[in-house]
Every structure is written in C-alpha cells, then in structure tokens.
Amino acid sequence: MSHDHSLNPETMPSEPEKATQEGKNKFIGFWFFLGGETVLFAALFGTYIALRNSTADGPTANELFGLELVFIMTILLLTSSLTSVYAMYHLKNNDFKKMQLWLGITAILGFSFLACEIYEFTHYITEFGFTFRSSAFGSAFYALVGFHGGHVTFGMAWLIALMLRNAKRGLNLYNAPKFYVFSLYWHFIDVVWVFIFTVVYLMGKVG
Amino acid sequence: MKGWMGKIRAFCLLGLTAFVLSACGKENLTALDPKGYGADQSFNLIILTTIVMLFVLAVVMVVYTIVLIRYRKKKGQKDYIPKQVEGNKTLETVWTVIPIILLLIIAVPTITATFDLADESAASDSLNVQVTGNQYWWHFNYEGQEIQTSQDLYIPVGEKVYLNMKSSDVIHSFWVPAISGKMDVNPENENTMYIEAHEEGVYWGKCAEFCGPSHSLMDFKVVAVSQDEFDQWAQDMQNVDPEAEPEDAVAQEGQSLFQEKNCMSCHAIGSSPAQIGPNLTDFGNRSKLAGVEDLTKENLVQWITDPESIKPGNKMTGNYPEVSDDEAGKIAEYLLQLKPTDITPESAQ
Amino acid sequence: MSTAASQKRGFGTVLWDYLTTVDHKKIAHLYLFGGGFFFLLGGLEALAIRIQLLQPENDFVSAGFYNEILTMHGTTMIFLAAMPLIFAIMNAVVPLQIGARDVAFPFLNSLGFWLFLFGGLLLNCSWFLGGAPDAGWTGYVPLSITSPGHGVDFYVMGLQIAGAGTLIGGINFLATIVTMRAPGMTYMRMPLFSWTTFITSILILFAFPALTVGLFLLMFDRMFGSAFFDVGLGGNAIIWQHLFWIFGHPEVYILILPLFGVFSEVISTFSKKRLFGYTAMVFATILIAFLGFMVWAHHMFAVGLGPVANSIFSLATMAIAVPTGIKIFNWLATMWGGRITINSAMLWTLGFIPTFTIGGMTGVMVASVVADYQYHDSYFVVAHFHYVIVGGTVFGIFAALHYWWPKMFGRVLNEAMGKLTFWTFFIGFHLTFFIQHFLGLMGMPRRYWTYLEGQQLDLGNQISTVGAFFMAFGVIVFVINAIYTAVKGEKAADDPWDGRTLEWSIASPPAHYNFKQMPLVRGLDALWIEKMEGKGRLTPAEPLGDIHMPNSSFLPFMMSLGLFIAGLGFIYQVNYNWAYILLFGGMAIMLGSMLARSLKDDHGYHIPKDELEREVD
C-alpha cells in the first residue's frame, strides 16, 4: 500500500504528530475537546464551591482532609506530567524505546496516584462514614474528585492500550498523533488536579 | 416622569383593542389594568418598552416595504447585475448607535424600578406575612399576630405588605398580576417581596412556576380591604375558638366526624401551626373551594370523597380514612359554617 | 438522490450503506430524516396541547398526561428536531462551502448522528415504558427529583446520550473549518453560513458540558441517592437552574445563529448582491455568541437573585439587541438596490425578517427586569420564544431546505407546494402565537393544563388553536412536496440559483469525494468572482491526483447502541437487579467498540487518479 510508505518515511519530520492531515485534525480537535472539558470541570467546581459548607451535620472538610496524603498524590501526578513531557521529547526525536520507557514510568505514577485515591476514599467511608449520600457536600466532593479520578482511570486504560498496540511496530506518522494527544490529555488531568488541590483540599483546611 | 407616563398610560389604555379591554373584568386578573404598586411599575415599563420597540419595528417595516416594492425583479431585468456594495461605514454606525441610545432609554428606568421593588428597608415597620407554597395550595402566617390562614390572603389597602416566601416542596411562584409581578417561592431560601393594592378588591393569584399535575389549579386570592376592616378581621381571627360548637345539629355531627376521621392530623382550625393541609379557620368565608371551584356543599362533598377528581396529584388523596357521601355531607356542613368573622371577600368591594 | 441508485442496489445494500456511512452528505440525509421524524412527533404533541387548551376546563387529556406532552414537546423540538435539522444543513453544506472533501473526523461525524438518534429513541421509549418525563423541558428540581416513575430518568439518559452526539458534532465542525479550508479560503473569505457554523460550534463546545454536568447531578440524585438538590441534606435547587441556563441560553443562539447564516446566503443569492457589511455581520455574530454566555440569569429574574444581579443581567441582555439589529439592517441593505427574485427559499427569508424583528422586540421587553416580573413564565414568554425559535430557526430551516435541496438530492422542490407551505404556515404561525402575548399579560401562566371560565382567556386560546392547525397543514404539504419531488421532481442543474459560493461549482448531488481537484479561492463569493470574470468555474489549486477517502464503519452504530442499552440499565437498576446486565453489557459493547476502533488501524482508501480521469466532468 502506498500510504504505508508515506506513514513510515525514512526520516521522520520534526513534528510527526502534525505531519499528516489526520494528525493536524486530531491535534486541533483535541484542543477543542479539552476546551469543552474545561467547562465540564468548571461546572463541577462551581457546584462544589456552592455546596462545600452544606455538610448537614456530617463531617466537614476540615475534619476529613489530611494534607500529607494529598501532597503525595500531587507530587505523583505532577511528576507523571513531567515524565510524559520526556516521552514526547523522545517522540520528536523518533526514539521509540525511550518514549515507551518514559510512558511506562508515567503509567506507574498514574496508577500510584489512583491507588492513593482509592485508599483516601475508603478511609473517608470507613473512618468517618462519609459517603456520596452523606450530605450535599459529600455528593459534591465525590462528584468532583471522582470525575477527576475517572479521567485518570480512563487515561491509564488509554495509555496501556496505546503502548501495547504499538509495542512491536514502533513509531510512525499514524500513531504519533495518538501518543501526542494522550500527553495533551494527561497534562489537562494534571492541571485539573492542581485546582482540586487548591479549591478542595487547601481551602477545605484553611477556609 | 410619573406625569408623562401617566398620560401615555391613559392614552394607551384607550388605544388598546376591545379584546384587551374585555380582559379588565371583575376578576382582577389581568396585568394590563394594574391596581397595585408593583403592577404599576411593571406596566409603565411594559408601555415604555412597547413604544420604543414599536418605533424600531416601524423603521424596519418601512425599509422592508420599500425594498420589496422597488427592488423586486422586473421584466426585462434578466441580465441586470446590481452593483456589488461592500458596506457603508456611516450607515452601519447609525444603526449601531441609535439602538444603543434607545436601549439606554429603557435601561435607566428599568434599573431604578428594579432597586425600588427590592427595597426592604420598610419591612420591619410593616405587616409581614410568611407565605408557604405547597402542592397545590398557599399558606399565610401573619408574623407576630397568631393568625394562620390558607388560600385567601387578606391585606389592608394602600399599605405595603411584606411577604416572606418559602416552599415546603417544589418551586412555586407567587403571582397576582393585577397587584404585582411574580417572585419564585423556593424550598431552600426565603424570598421577600412586597405588595401594595391601591383599591379594595379581590385579586386573582396564580402559581407561575411549573409544580406538577395541578399547577394550573393552584389559584389563590388576595383580598384587599380597608384598614379598619382589616383590623376587625385580624381581631376576629385571633379570637377564634377552634373548638366552638356549631349551632346546627348536622354540623355538630360533622364536627365530631371531622375529629374521628383524623382530619386534624393535617388540617388546623385556629392559629395552630400544623399545616400539612390548608388551615380551615375561615373556610366558610373562602372565595373559592380548592382555589378553583365554587364554594358549595355539593362541590365540597365531591372534594372530601374524591379530591383527585378536582386536583390531580394532591397530597390528600389516599391519606385519610374512607368517608361516605353522607358523612362527607355532614363534614361539609361543619366546614361551611366556619365563619369566624364578618369580613369576607364580599367586604372588599 | 440515492433513490435512483437504490432501485438498482436493493434495499439491504442501501440500508447497510447508511448504517455504516461516514460521508458527510449521507450523514446529512440521516440527520434530515431523523430530525424530520422527531419534528413531526413534536408537532403532534403541539397539536395535542392546543386541542386541550381549545376551551376552558377541557379534559381532552388528563393533567398528568398533559405535563408529559408539554415536556416532550419542548424537549423533542429543541434537542431532537431543531438541533439535528441544523446539523443536517451544516453537514450537507459546510464542507462544500469551504472546499473540503469531507469533515475532519468522518468517523466521529457518524458517531454524533447515531448518538443523537439513539438518545432520541431512548427518550421516546418512555412513552411505552410507564410514562414520559413530566417536569418540563427545563427539568427544574425539586420537581424533577420528586417526579414519580421513570419518566425523568429517560429524560436524563436520553439527553445525556444525544448531548454527547451534539458535542462531538460541534468539535468536528470546529476542526473541519480550522484545518480543511480550500487553498485561498481565508477566514474572511468564508461564506457567512460557514462562519455561523463555526461560531455555533464554539457555543456548542462551551455550553453543552454545563448541561452534561447538570444531567449527571440529576442522574446521581435520582438513581444513586446523592444530595445535590436535596434541601434536607444541604442541597440547593438553584444550582440546577444555573447549570441548565448556562447551557440553555447559549443553546438559544446555537439554534438561531446557523440560520442567520442561511438567511445571509439566501438574501445575497436572490438579491444578486454581495452581502452588505460582511465584516460587520461576522463580528456581530461573534458578539452575539460572546454575550450569549453572559446573560443566562435573565431566565431567573424571578428566582430572587437580588437587584444587582438582575440589573447586570438585564443590561447584558439588552446589549444583544445591538448586534442583532445590525444584522437585520444589513440584510435589508443587501436587498436594497438589488434584483430580488421571490421563490420559496426567499419567501421564508422575507417572512423571517418581520417575524424575528417582533421576536427581538419582545426580547428587549422581557429583558427589562421589572416588566419581566409580569412576563416571566406567562404565555407572553411562550409567544416570545416561539417568535424567535419558530420565526427564526424553523423558518430558516425551511429556507435552507428549499435553497439546498437541489444540492442535497439533485432535485428541485416543487415551487407551488413550497409557496402553499409558506403561506399556510406563516399565517398559522402568527395566528397561533401573536395572541399569546396578550394571553400572558391577561394572567395566563405557561404550562397550564387548563384555564377557568370567565377569565377572558377563551377567545385568545381558540384563535391560537386554529392557527396551530394551519401550521400543521403547511407541514403536511411540505412532506408531500418532499415525497413528490423524490418521485417526480425536476432534476436540478448544478447551479440552479445562479449561486455565489463553492457548493454551486460542483455537481448536484456532488460526487462522494466532492471536489476532484481542490479549488483555488480568490475572494469572498468565490464562484461569483469567477462568473464575473467570465470563466464561470474555479481554477484548480492542485493537479489531478489520488484522492484519500475514509473507510465506512459500523462501529459508531454499535457504540451508540451500547450506550442506549446501558442507559436502560441505569434507569432500571434502581428497581431491578437484572438491569445491571443491561448496564454492564451495554457499557461493554460501547467500550469494546471503542477499543476495536483504537486497536485496528484505519488508513482509509485511495481513489486512483486514472479512475477519476475516466469519470465524466
């Protein structure tokens, strides 16, 4: 097939993710998608801020949150964003193995974050009896942080699928945009977490 | 401002069609014949905006008509190609600036009136009524006066009355078009508005926020009476003896049935705060039964035996013991003689 | 049109073709049929409403059933009729207008359609599964929380699925317009319909996620016991109203802006003049869209937000009148000095101008807070939004269909029937809705199942009901017209209206690759420029070569079907454990299809150059 050749050029262009029309479309389209995601999280943040004091005699933010665990989670996720940047650096240099290595590290960090979050939620439920149904605050908390956690989970599934699917054939102009778009998604998840850390945990402790 | 608005208003009232004039009937429902402070404010703005906007519509329609007459394709124009005009800065500026000026003419009185109607500074010196919206009836609790009533809200004419409104279930909206615009009655916070009627009368009120199957039947009345009559009414209502025995023997039987059938677990007579169902203190004086039916024994019996046939989705259906037609008739007799005061909707003429 | 081909190819092949197509022109047909079907359904619901209100204290339908009908009328017309019909026009026209061979994401385009269709079907399944939603199309809590049965659950799941489709469609058009314009087609040379599609897509992108979140919260409260709107547990019912209107007000502009584009094209073509003030038109559209996000709380003037918030939202709302006014006057100025041909498409446009001006007038009137205390939630508002949505959106859709039908199906709609449709619908429309302004002011709140005798509301309601039947008659004539045209209609020329934009430079209907060679665009109204210079056709921007085309796929259908099944599972898991089978099974179908899409490479195919050379020009 003619396009096999066109997707596997002898020298990869410097921006392989945008070298094809499909790649360009994916790149632009995904940025737009993230714009929509921003509104989605903004709406959840708005709901959370409106309901954060509506504890209905249940546990309050100040009683629940411990900053140590959340701090570790923040470090994990921020670092995973950095490692995905390294992966993209190697993507541009057409160094597939190193890219896979750094993506692997990203995945490990992502899973560690998820493990912490699952521990955190279990802790709230068993120690404080604080659930999705406890109060409006409980609903808003689990909705916002849970939506983020859901995004992380989906991102992990996506990343693993990408890495396994392409493990044997290396980088080409067909899959480069896919890797790149994943890294965009991952940075977005990271930025959302920074806001969650501030609005939910810091303001919960201080405000 | 008031002077010329008044003149315009008089003029417009004259100019309104017979159709609209026919709306100014005795039931005091229409917002086009305002008889209260809030309704006046709204009406002035309705007229002002209508005039400004009719001017805009007229300009558009004149240009539109000219265009259609002059520039419609004519015979022999088959190959005529009009000049391709890109635009015209002056013209475009004109039709940007003039609308802005027109909007300012509307905006200034709008904002003045908005703040005026939200003014709560006189609340502490005025009559305050706690209004509760329920599916599908209204409860009124006169704050600090030990008066509770439902469906008919008595107010003194010419006085500001502050309504502190909250819902016990879903969102409702309190609307008495002839006296004032509407305000929502929310379940989680208290909304305050004031009403002031200029003339004595019975004003028709409606629920304006979609609240379930009987949304369209959640009517109520505002009864505006003179200050003296209002004072008399308030005194009578405070002095009600909830246990007073009726004179009529049938009604007496009705009274004991009323207790036997557990009606009191939801309804109250007198100023008891219980209000799962409407307060029945002055039931015999009500202008309407259930807000929409004529207050007759026949209708009341129907209500007691089968409320669902009058107000679908009401909270009474299925929540009281079996009542026979005969028993219902006796209870009706009892309820219809509950007339603790001589001040009735008829007093407000 | 495909009917000619279908006779040769057999029904099964055509069906499979449409189930798997990723061609924007066929997806346009799908949207048209899907949206048209729901439009007729919503129209029937409207007739039931009007019959019920024909006389005071009528009992044509019961109170509970009436609420279901009015809820479904609103929901259907907005989400399942107007939006898909707009998407039909966008899909049919935008790629052609910007000189593209397809949209940026043909696969997602198909997914968007199937999500809409299955969402709509799920919503309408409620009629047969215990009752439709009955809390109004706005689904205000706590009413929608306390509504018994599963009606509102169908509303939540149906809209969530259909909404996802709309969002995907919006992103698709954004990417298409950014990356796939023909050589020389700069932004300021784009036809106005493409511009309004672009801006509408931005509105979709930023507005729909708010609805998504609102629906999620409602879903959690109804199905999983959360307490967002449960006042007893600290919940807040006003949050729903904010989320709903942060979506809902931009939605109004999503419904009208594309049609502003349509009217601009139609007026310009049939006046034989360049659009007056093109730049101002573009910026007015952008300004309307921007302001559209700043005004949601004018739906909430009666909520008790306080005088400061009410005043700010009032001013912002009034400000929208300025760019809208600019548009009206620019259209008039375009016609001024032109040579106006009046046919069906133009009639709808000419009907639109006064109708929409009245809708805009009442729009400014309801923006005035204190006056709105009277209008709010009364029939005045019902009249107002039908003047803008029917007078703007529906008139616009009819104009667009008459204008682009030749390009979509290769045949011209019958003129006589077109005019009959217009006049009956136009007269019926004003009969139905003009009087409702007065009904509202005379004290008739909206969503009233019935009204009492002796309140002077009888005559107005009767006139209104008569008008509704005129509108119904007009719609029936249009349906007959469409069928007649498909069977016996006159074959359309490539350029039947002496058009100005790129879509008229290719065949009617176009080949599936649209442009054999990409056209070189030299200015606004690209085709008109070439006509004026005597060439009459566009210069190719590239030599003839292989054309890359996307593969068809059945996966979008499967994904949407999976979500449909999962939706049923979500609804019924509240009462029955077996519903989890549906829930997880449906999700498995959806995620499995996504995984299949992700793992299996799809490189598309090429139409070889020599095959293209063999085809007749």
Automatic annotation (TrEMBL), chain A:
<feature type="transmembrane region" description="Helical">
    <location>
        <begin position="28"/>
        <end position="49"/>
    </location>
</feature>
<feature type="transmembrane region" description="Helical">
    <location>
        <begin position="141"/>
        <end position="164"/>
    </location>
</feature>
<dbReference type="GO" id="GO:0019646">
    <property type="term" value="P:aerobic electron transport chain"/>
</dbReference>
<dbReference type="GO" id="GO:0004129">
    <property type="term" value="F:cytochrome-c oxidase activity"/>
</dbReference>
<keyword id="KW-1003">Cell membrane</keyword>
<protein>
    <submittedName>
        <fullName>Cytochrome (Ubi)quinol oxidase subunit III</fullName>
    </submittedName>
</protein>
<keyword id="KW-0472">Membrane</keyword>
<dbReference type="GO" id="GO:0005886">
    <property type="term" value="C:plasma membrane"/>
</dbReference>
<comment type="similarity">
    <text>Belongs to the cytochrome c oxidase subunit 3 family.</text>
</comment>
<feature type="transmembrane region" description="Helical">
    <location>
        <begin position="184"/>
        <end position="204"/>
    </location>
</feature>
<dbReference type="InterPro" id="IPR024791">
    <property type="entry name" value="Cyt_c/ubiquinol_Oxase_su3"/>
</dbReference>
<dbReference type="InterPro" id="IPR035973">
    <property type="entry name" value="Cyt_c_oxidase_su3-like_sf"/>
</dbReference>
<dbReference type="Pfam" id="PF00510">
    <property type="entry name" value="COX3"/>
</dbReference>
<dbReference type="InterPro" id="IPR013833">
    <property type="entry name" value="Cyt_c_oxidase_su3_a-hlx"/>
</dbReference>
<keyword id="KW-0812">Transmembrane</keyword>
UniProtKB/TrEMBL annotation, chain B:
<dbReference type="GO" id="GO:0016491">
    <property type="term" value="F:oxidoreductase activity"/>
</dbReference>
<keyword id="KW-1133">Transmembrane helix</keyword>
<keyword id="KW-1278">Translocase</keyword>
<dbReference type="GO" id="GO:0020037">
    <property type="term" value="F:heme binding"/>
</dbReference>
<dbReference type="InterPro" id="IPR002429">
    <property type="entry name" value="CcO_II-like_C"/>
</dbReference>
<keyword id="KW-0732">Signal</keyword>
<keyword id="KW-0349">Heme</keyword>
<dbReference type="GO" id="GO:0005886">
    <property type="term" value="C:plasma membrane"/>
</dbReference>
<keyword id="KW-0479">Metal-binding</keyword>
<dbReference type="InterPro" id="IPR001505">
    <property type="entry name" value="Copper_CuA"/>
</dbReference>
<keyword id="KW-0560">Oxidoreductase</keyword>
<feature type="transmembrane region" description="Helical">
    <location>
        <begin position="90"/>
        <end position="111"/>
    </location>
</feature>
<dbReference type="InterPro" id="IPR036257">
    <property type="entry name" value="Cyt_c_oxidase_su2_TM_sf"/>
</dbReference>
<keyword id="KW-0249">Electron transport</keyword>
<dbReference type="InterPro" id="IPR011759">
    <property type="entry name" value="Cyt_c_oxidase_su2_TM_dom"/>
</dbReference>
TrEMBL record, chain C:
<dbReference type="InterPro" id="IPR000883">
    <property type="entry name" value="Cyt_C_Oxase_1"/>
</dbReference>
<feature type="transmembrane region" description="Helical">
    <location>
        <begin position="154"/>
        <end position="180"/>
    </location>
</feature>
<keyword id="KW-0249">Electron transport</keyword>
<comment type="function">
    <text>Cytochrome c oxidase is the component of the respiratory chain that catalyzes the reduction of oxygen to water. Subunits 1-3 form the functional core of the enzyme complex. CO I is the catalytic subunit of the enzyme. Electrons originating in cytochrome c are transferred via the copper A center of subunit 2 and heme A of subunit 1 to the bimetallic center formed by heme A3 and copper B.</text>
</comment>
<feature type="transmembrane region" description="Helical">
    <location>
        <begin position="69"/>
        <end position="94"/>
    </location>
</feature>
<dbReference type="GO" id="GO:0016491">
    <property type="term" value="F:oxidoreductase activity"/>
</dbReference>
<dbReference type="InterPro" id="IPR023615">
    <property type="entry name" value="Cyt_c_Oxase_su1_BS"/>
</dbReference>
<dbReference type="GO" id="GO:0015990">
    <property type="term" value="P:electron transport coupled proton transport"/>
</dbReference>
<comment type="pathway">
    <text>Energy metabolism; oxidative phosphorylation.</text>
</comment>
<feature type="transmembrane region" description="Helical">
    <location>
        <begin position="578"/>
        <end position="596"/>
    </location>
</feature>
<keyword id="KW-0186">Copper</keyword>
<feature type="transmembrane region" description="Helical">
    <location>
        <begin position="308"/>
        <end position="333"/>
    </location>
</feature>
<keyword id="KW-1278">Translocase</keyword>
<dbReference type="GO" id="GO:0022904">
    <property type="term" value="P:respiratory electron transport chain"/>
</dbReference>
<feature type="transmembrane region" description="Helical">
    <location>
        <begin position="345"/>
        <end position="367"/>
    </location>
</feature>
